[in-house]
Design a protein that fits this description.
heterodimer; A: two-stranded antiparallel ribbon; 76% helix; 1% strand; B: 2 strands; 3% strand; globular
Chain lengths: 481, 654
């Protein structure tokens, strides 16, 4: 290790150190003024963001090829950092209101983001595993942050047990791949495969296990069952962050590992990926229909959205469309981030203590009493469905288009049908807010309002300028290949 | 270098009103009426300033400049940007839109202050100015676009604002939904036109692979004439919708249901001229196909005459102006159809001045009448307080004594519109007549007849409103409007009087200015004979109006002297040639019957049945699937394990 290595991963290093210092500093911050901790955490994220942005997009390896920092990583890091900032804004008032204002919250959030960033840097299976644990463990704790609430505890325990199970699968996969190729670095694995010195069966099983492990994190059917329980039990501010960050990190790992190390296995994996994508879109959207609790509804919605994202992976080894498809994935993730965090902000505004205010019926009449809030929620629902001119429309449009280019028209059609189907449950929220009478109440808080403003602006603004965002994404993946 | 800086300001012309409307939307409630009006007017005023700066830059560097703002749509080979085209044509439009727009904004701050109280809903003040600024945004997008899709965004945007503002008092009007109906009519009729424009845009992209003006014009030069003909004719359909030409003009008279500043800004000065602009902008296409040009010219000239006849038989002060607007738009369309683009644009600008003036002055008259009515209603029973229509010219008369300023500016506008030298309308109309005289003598006759009728109905209006005796108590007690109303009127009156200086015969300053963007336009020579003839016709029209309405005075308030002498013909023009009824019988009723059939049996029966069936099937399926979600970690782990097994099984045993 030398100084250049450290400079290369500087944003990550700064963030991890900042999180640790934050834990210490927090000891001197009085209990009723945890807003200071929140601001300090936000500063840390902003600093990491600045450091990431100021470096070029030229790929740089460090630590003997264990990590790589390139445009792809930086683009995803921006998603993590922005969603971190937004979820701090979401959390501040919510935690106070729910009697959860403790400084560790923010430090854990920063640790989780460090893990996600490390995931995007990872160029070696060992680092991939390290990052997976670094991002997971803080999330387990955060899920159980409402210590005295049995649901929250249950969520944390379930998440931990199943997470450990899937980590085990990942580790087993890493071991098998090492056994097959005697390498753990991604380019090394590819080289070994190309020299035909690898054991094909072991390699295939190892790859499949990695796929399952990451699919668990990204909530792909049938590895999704923890999602509704955990999303419902965890504090809403944590769920909001988790449903963006953890999912994006899972996809980042999948993309990096499969594109770099396993392009030769595409004949085997493409049908599997196809099936997972189709299954996820169908199951997520169908079960969402039966939900009456907003948190569970959004949980299934996030599963369905993961199915659309999975579509980007199916043609992962086709050099012709690969850059388009990865760019489409990055684009979709940006839209997903704004839409999801915005929708969760509305949920948080309506939520009451002790799990009240989360049923669909609690939204009746919101349109009359809080027109702005209801209008914002409508916008996010439209974006989830993929109605133009929202960002969600363009995200799906580019995903479906690259799927068609890659030769998977059926899958794209399936996605289209699933989107139409999803309108059914997304619109139920809108109908509830505007066409039913009721006494919906919502919290007014400037930070929530700010989050809603930024996310709405993101959904509309980028929806009007999709070309600019897509070009950014295309530039980011240019050097990946 | 400095010029580039000025050009790069172009997006701000659009962005400033955007900020204005956002400010009012978010903070309007706290700002109060003064703040709202100030922000909205300032936003438009600053956009005008930007347009002036752009004009200065263009005067030094007349070449068209494209100012990109951001990438928009990138799909395959389609690459569209939010890019602004700064050339003399677009800047002329921007100047007219923001210049007249600013004056109307200022006027509206005063007018709406009274109107919202008159209608009993002061909270709507903010809504009005948000829509108003939104309109400016959309209109500026339309005229400054560098590609047809961005133009279409503006085109639809102004249509939306038009709809929102016609139906601004959506719970007023006949049976409480009259205004909403008018708004709907405007929207639906415009939709037919927009459909035409959309088809034209599709065809452009399909055949030329781009939507940017320069690319299309370059490619179209080599295209088959039949294709260009089809495209230009579909475009013409769009023009007839937006610019209220035959056969789609029917929405514009109803659009007068909107507040008067709306009629002035949207339905007289700016939005309705979008069609003329579209043809001027697409002139390289039209010039290739004489048949299309001919069609455009005929549509324009026929509209000019047809609408002018209807204007003669109307009693509503705003309806007369509405038909007059349709007629004048016909002049412009005829001009651009004949290739006289400069003449068309010239008339567009002067018309923006004097028609905005006339509408705003009419608003001032209406306000005066409403005031008088409120005064005179004091002694009466509250029940018939609203029995009197303050827009009906039969209730007016003799207002010149009580509303001096309004009278003088109205007179200036009316004379300019009638084409009396040396007011602005004379020069611009004369240029169109001269072009027609040279190119298409038949149209010259039609347009000359329309010009005669124009002078006649304007004279009729002046005499009915301002001269003679007051024919109602309201008219007796009417009084002059405050300065916030009259000052914009005076400015517009001055512009209407001297506006002809823009393009005086022999100097042709507007013609030379527009050469930068309209390459193919020969300057129209001044023909003394035509000018004298048109002046004579205008004077004859006014004289006849004086004979009928001025000299003899209107004896009773309900009979029009013209009705006695013209008989059935007057009934026909009074009933607008029964065009609305014709459309109702031929198009609307069969269409509604078909819709009814489709709605009841096909949609509610078959389709809803299928969808509901699928929906309940999906729900019960969802209920079954949900049972898998039982909450036990062991069963979740089992599912994961089974998933792994399934994948392995597939990978090894397929």
């Amino acid at each position: 290790m030398n100084l250049t290595d450290l400079v290369t991963i500087l944003p990550l290093a700064v963030l991890a150190v900042w999180a640790t210092l934050l834990l210490l500093v927090d000891l001197w911050i009085p209990k009723d003024r945890k807003g200071i901790t929140a601001v300090l955490a936000a500063l840390g994220l902003a600093l990491a963001m600045g450091l990431s942005l100021t470096r070029g997009q030229q790929p740089q390896q460090a630590f003997g090829g264990m990590v790589i920092v390139d445009g792809f990583a930086i683009f995803l890091d921006m998603i993590f950092l922005v969603s971190g900032l937004l979820s701090i804004a979401l959390a501040h008032d919510y935690l106070k209101r729910m009697n959860l204002a403790r400084g560790e919250y923010y430090a854990l959030l920063l640790y989780a983001i460090s893990g996600m960033i490390l995931m995007t840097y990872a160029y070696d299976l060992i680092i991939v595993f390290l990052a997976l644990e670094l991002l997971s463990i803080p999330l387990y704790i955060l899920s159980g942050f409402i210590r005295l609430n049995s649901r929250s505890e249950e969520a944390a325990l379930k998440y931990f047990l199943l997470g450990a199970f899937s980590s085990g699968l990942v580790l087993y996969g890493v071991a098998l791949i090492f056994g097959a190729t005697a390498r753990t670095d991604l380019p090394g694995i590819l080289a070994a495969v190309q020299q035909a010195s690898a054991n094909p069966a072991m390699l295939l099983v190892g790859g499949a296990l990695l796929l399952v492990g990451f699919s668990f994190k990204s909530a792909i059917v049938p590895f999704h069952e923890w999602v509704p329980d955990v999303y419902q039990g965890a504090p809403s501010s944590v769920t909001a962050f988790m449903s963006v960050g953890a999912k994006a990190a899972g996809f980042a790992a999948l993309m990096r590992v499969f594109v770099t190390a396993f392009p030769t296995l595409s004949a085997d994996f493409t049908p599997v990926l196809w099936g997972l994508s189709a299954l996820t879109m169908i199951v997520g959207n169908v079960i969402a229909l039966a939900q009456t609790n907003l948190k569970r509804l959004l949980a299934y919605s996030s599963i369905a959205q993961a199915g659309y994202l999975m579509m980007a992976f199916v043609p992962y080894a086709q050099g012709m469309v690969l850059s388009d498809t990865i760019a489409a994935m990055l684009f979709f993730l940006v839209g997903y981030m704004f839409t999801t965090l915005g929708a969760w902000a509305v949920v948080i505004a309506v939520e009451k203590a002790e799990g009240k205010g989360l049923e669909m019926t609690d939204y009746a009449g919101l349109g009359r009493r809080h027109p702005w809030l209801a209008a914002a929620m409508t916008l996010f629902m439209l974006s989830f469905i993929g109605v133009p001119p929202t960002l969600g429309f363009w995200g799906k449009f580019y995903l479906f288009r690259t799927a068609v280019e890659g030769g998977f028209t059926t899958l794209a059609l399936l996605g289209l049908l699933a989107s139409i189907f999803s309108a059914f449950y997304y619109f139920r929220v809108v109908v509830m807010m505007f066409m039913q009478t009721g006494k919906a109440e919502a919290r007014r808080d400037p930070w929530l309002a700010l989050t809603l403003g930024i996310t709405s602006l993101g959904v509309i603004g980028f929806g009007l300028l999709p070309g600019s965002l897509l070009n950014l994404a295309l530039q980011a993946v240019l050097k990946l290949l | 270098m400095e010029n580039n800086l000025l050009f790069s300001l172009a997006p701000w012309a659009v962005l400033l009103p955007v900020f204005g409307l956002l400010l009012n939307l978010v903070f309007g409630k706290r700002l109060g009426e003064k703040g709202i009006g100030l922000i909205a007017s300032l936003a438009t005023g600053l956009a005008f300033l930007v347009s002036v700066l752009l004009a200065i830059a263009l005067s030094r560097h007349p070449e068209a400049t494209v100012v990109p703002l951001a990438d928009w749509i990138t799909v395959g080979q389609l690459n569209l940007a939010w890019a602004f085209r700064v050339d003399t044509l677009s800047v002329t439009m921007m100047l007219a839109v923001t210049g007249v727009g600013t004056l109307i904004h200022v006027y509206a701050t005063g007018y709406m202050h009274k109107d919202v109280r008159h209608q009993g809903d002061p909270g709507s003040y903010r809504r009005f100015f948000v829509y108003f600024n939104l309109f400016i945004v959309a209109m500026l997008l339309l005229v400054s676009a560098n590609n047809y899709l961005m133009l279409f965004v503006g085109w639809e945007g102004v249509g939306l604002c038009s709809y929102l503002l016609i139906g601004f008092w959506f719970n007023k009007g006949a049976e409480g939904i009259g205004n909403a109906r008018a708004a709907k009519k405007a929207f639906v009729v415009n939709r037919i036109g927009d459909f035409g424009l959309l088809i034209a845009i599709f065809l452009l992209f399909w055949n030329f692979g781009t939507l940017e003006f320069d690319g299309i014009f370059a490619a179209a030069a080599k295209a088959a004439p039949a294709l260009v003909l089809v495209i230009t004719l579909f475009m013409l359909l769009g023009v007839t919708g937006k610019s209220a030409q035959l056969p789609l003009y029917v929405w514009l008279p109803d659009a007068m249901a909107g507040p008067t500043p709306v009629s002035a800004l949207i339905h007289a000065a700016t939005m309705v001229t979008a069609g003329v602009y579209l043809i001027a902008r697409s002139s390289p296409l039209y010039i290739q196909v004489p048949a299309a040009q001919m069609t455009v010219a005929w549509v324009g000239a026929l509209t000019a005459l047809f609408a002018a006849t209807i204007a003669v038989g109307q009693y509503d002060i705003k309806k007369v102006l509405a038909y007059s607007t349709i007629s004048q738009l016909g002049f412009m369309v005829a001009a651009v159809g004949m290739g006289a683009y400069v003449a068309g644009m010239f008339h567009l600008v002067t018309h923006a001045f004097f028609k905005a003036l006339l509408f705003l002055a009419a608003g001032s008259v209406i306000m005066g009448m409403e005031h008088g009515e409120e005064q005179s209603a004091h002694g009466r029973a509250p029940g018939d307080a609203h029995s009197l229509d303050p827009q009906d010219m039969r209730n007016m008369g003799g207002l010149q004594g009580r509303m001096r300023t309004t009278f003088w500016v109205y007179l200036a506008g009316a004379l300019a519109l009638s084409g009396i030298a040396p007011l602005s309308g004379f020069f611009s109309k004369d240029e169109i007549l001269a072009a027609a005289f040279r190119n298409m003598p038949v149209l010259f006759i039609l347009l000359l007849a329309a010009a005669f009728l124009t002078a006649f109905y304007m004279g009729r209006q002046i005499f009915m409103v301002f001269f003679g005796k007051a024919r109602s108590a309201a008219a007796e007690q009417a009084h002059e409007s405050p300065p916030v109303i009259t000052v914009p009127l005076i400015i517009l009156a001055v512009l209407s009087v001297v506006g002809g200086a823009l393009n005086l015969p022999g100097v042709h300053s507007l013609g030379h200015w527009l050469e930068g963007s309209l390459a193919h336009t020969p300057t129209v020579e001044f023909i003394a004979g035509v000018a004298l003839l048109s002046l004579a016709v205008a004077l004859a029209g006014l004289f006849l109006a004086w004979m009928v309405y001025g000299q003899r005075r209107m004896p009773f308030k309900d009979t029009d002297p013209l009705a006695r002498s013209l008989g059935g013909l007057f009934t026909a023009v009074y009933n607008k040639w029964w065009v609305d009824e014709l459309y109702q019988a031929v198009i609307l009723r069969p269409y509604q019957q078909l819709s009814d059939l489709l709605a009841r049996t096909v949609d509610m029966g078959w389709i809803d049945g299928t969808v509901n069936g699928l929906g309940s099937a999906a729900r019960s399926f969802a209920g079954q699937l949900r049972r898998l979600e039982n909450g036990y970690v062991r069963s979740y782990a089992l599912t994961i394990f089974l998933g792994v097994v399934a994948i392995m099984a597939y990978l090894f045993f397929r």
